Amino acid sequence: MNQYLIYALGFFAQGLFGARSIVQWYLSEREGRVVSPTLFWIFSLSGSSLFLLYGLIRQDVVIDRAIDIVLHLCA
Asked: What is the DSSP track for 9-72?
């Protein structure tokens, strides 16, 4: 697989994972209270899964994202 595509996957995964915080912040400000919207969890699980895939492809398992997936599924 092309190395630049792998890097793009990693950056995209990190972007999704980071976007979850922006989504939660924006929607919490709009509601006037702390909320945990469904979109937050979708971004979180998607970003974590893709970041784990990125680590597996590079044979460099990113353990903190793997732990995130387990925690999300158990919650």
From this structure: HHHHHHHHHHHHHHHHHHHHHHHTS----HHHHHHHHHHHHHHHHHHHHTT---HHHHHHHHHH
Any idea where the domains of the chain sit in the sequence?
A: 3-74
Q: Distance between CA 75 and CA 31 in Å, rounded?
A: 24
Residue 18 CA to residue 74 CA, distance in Å, equals: 21
CA distance 30 to 16: 21
**Residue 49 pLDDT grade (very low, low, confident, very high; cuts 50, 70, 90):** confident
- 37 CB contacts (<8 Å, ≥6 apart)? 23, 24, 27
Q: What is the pTM of this model?
A: 0.74
